[in-house]
Amino acid sequence: MKLLAPALLICGLILSTTANADQPCKARANRQKLAGEALVEFMGQCELEALEACQDKNARKPDDERLMQECVVKALGVGSKWCEPHNCRTNSDCMGGVGCNVCWGGICGD
Predict the structure, then answer these.
(1) What pLDDT, on a 0 to 100 scale, did the predictor assign at position 12?
(2) Is residue 76 a contact partner of residue 24, using CB atoms and an 8 Å limit?
(3) Is position 1 within any domain?
């Protein structure tokens, strides 16, 4: 019985880590209640990780630019568009066109 408790704890940690990796950056930031510079730094790091993962996933596929954008938007969890420029400090920094005027955590989206 004494061995069961540590085994259950390890299983729980593995499952929580796996579930965490599948969540968008925005959901993880909200769960951690990040704000201000901590939120911007977290989203910046999360964006880099999403870019790397999406680049590996979509390399040498037809229409890889569109697939790349869809992948990153999904990983970030910021909406259906990833605006250009995607980094922002205020809503006025988001210049991606219609529906792309929301700045959250240093990332522009819908």
Answers:
(1) 44
(2) yes
(3) no
